[in-house]
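Researcher: Checking consistency across runs. Here is TetR family transcriptional regulator again:
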Amino acid sequence: MSLKPASPLPPAAPARAAAGPGRPKDLAKRAAILDAAKRMFTQHGFEGASMDQIAAEAGVSKLTVYSHFGDKEALFGEAVRAVCATLMPDDLFVADTTAPLHSQLADIARAFFAMITSDEALATHRMMMTPGSDERVRQMFWQAGPERTVRAFSAFLEARAERGELDVPDVQRAAKQFFALLKGDLHTRMASGLCERPTPAAVDAHIDATVDMFLRAYAVRPAPAA
């Protein structure tokens, strides 16, 4: 959350000189459906949320939901992708050669930590961990969320390594290590309801310590003397 990723939406047709009046309305309906889906899946889980509920919450017909997203699985995957794209947009992972590496890593870390500790993300995590939860749903969630984030961060690390700022033999492994460090035991305890949300100062300290450790692990070291 075994199932292949939901098929991407077909590319939009080129805009005509005189667009019909229904075009903006269709985009608004799509956004409303996605917002409703995020709420319903968070509150009721994948199995508990029905397409009827999502349609009613969005104020559209069930036929409209199907016409935009095809099926429930595709809608779920698109809802997860939409949340990730909002909280961790693609431009966050663009290697800015004018910005200090530490500050860019801290920005990525802060966005990731805010995302995984949001109420919606914690509820979804608990849903994924429930015994008997559907493996297809867990696979869809993984492909639309964590897998996408690791790919984007791996590309960022590769760009920085090519500039000689990092020594990263395996960028995918390093990306996974970075996010695992950020989660730490704090995320596990929050998901288990064993601790309150940390203060902003505590979050900053956690992020700085994580980035510092990551940079020490993958710093470019001088070649040994001959």
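Researcher: Does this match what you'd expect to see?
Model: One thing to look at in this run: Residues 1-24 have pLDDT under 50 and may be disordered.
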